[in-house]
Amino acid sequence: MRRKLANAGAHLALTLLCLVWLAPFALLVLQSFRGESGGQVAYAIPKEWTLENYRFLLRDESGFLRWYANTLTIALFCAAIQTVLVLSVAYAFSRLRFRGRRLMMNMVLVLGMFPGFLTMIVLYYLLKLLGLTQSGAVPGLILIYTASSGLGYYIAKGFFDTIPRALDESARIDGANRFQVFWRIIMPLAKPIVIYTVLMAFMAPWGDYVFASYVAFGDPQGYNVAVGLYRWVNTTDYQGYFTRFCAGGVLVALPVTALFMALQRYYVEGVTGGAVKG
To answer: Which of 112, 116, 109, 118 is nearest to 141 (CA)?
Structure first.
């Protein structure tokens, strides 16, 4: 009886937490269909329903499609490049033994303690010299997001450490080189951590605002969706753009939410499998 009450209390608490977590998104969706003019209102359910806010996003004058394409381009390139770099570094530190390995791992750990904001001014002037700001912000952001991605190898290395080294040795005896061991032996067994790495690399730049606004300021051609939507609610026509902002937020959140829900099982396996000491 005591266990049943404890389980019921735990489920009730989790249900309440879920409702609290979902409430802002539900309000965002409801407001995106609101047809009444004005900004924030004191009621949740719209008195007049409309799809005009979503239709506005599909028009060229809104700029939303351009911002969405910029964000998708950045996220896809980052997902591909970061996955290759992270898994390569993690495999090297997990499987290879070379002079200076421990020193390099310690240096990477120390460097990771410094916040990226410390380098924002230097990075901006470097990108400006290369012509990768404002209208050229998309390749500039891809370069910055992927440049130091190898520093985040810890979870992938922990996962690789759980794979028996005897498999590597057997493949090496059969004549396989290091790349063949990595690609044909380790990768098929490391599906959870591969998907986890891809998912994290894709989601990180999707909602970035601070650095994206810093690099692309003043030029809508280089905005991502976070910067573009913020410009809407930071104008003198805040009342007119609020519901459009909500509609844009829904369209931005849906793909990432669907992707995360579809790959959630692999995400959990990757985190738990990589959370070991190595």
So the answer is: 116
CA angle centred on 11, ends 10 and 13, rounded to 5°: 65
What's the pLDDT tens digit per position in 247-275? 999 999 888 888 888 877 766 665 555 55
Show Cβ contacts of residue 156 under 8 Å, excluding neighbours closer than 6 positions.
86, 87, 89, 90, 91, 190, 193, 197, 274
Q: What is the pLDDT of residue 74?
A: 94
- The C-alpha atoms of residue 268 and residue 17 are separated, in whole angstroms, by 20
The radius of gyration computed from the CA coordinates of the chain, to the nearest angstrom, equals 23
Burial 209-236 (b: 16+ CB within 10 A, else e): eebbbbbbeeeeebbbbbbbbebbeeee
Instruction: Assess contact for 52 and 115: CB atoms under 8 A.
Output: no
Are the C-beta atoms of 180 and 171 separated by less than 8 Å?
A: yes
Instruction: Find tokens 């912000």 and name the residue.
Output: 137
With a pLDDT cut of 90, the percent of the chain lying above it is 22
pLDDT at 93 exceeding the cut of 80: yes
Instruction: Output the six-digit token pair for 185.
Output: 């032996």
For residues 269 and 65, which has the higher predicted lDDT (pLDDT)?
A: 65
Going by C-alpha positions, the residue among 259, 236, 211, 241 that lies closest to residue 79 is 259
Q: Residue 278 and residue 120: Cα distance in Å, rounded? A: 32
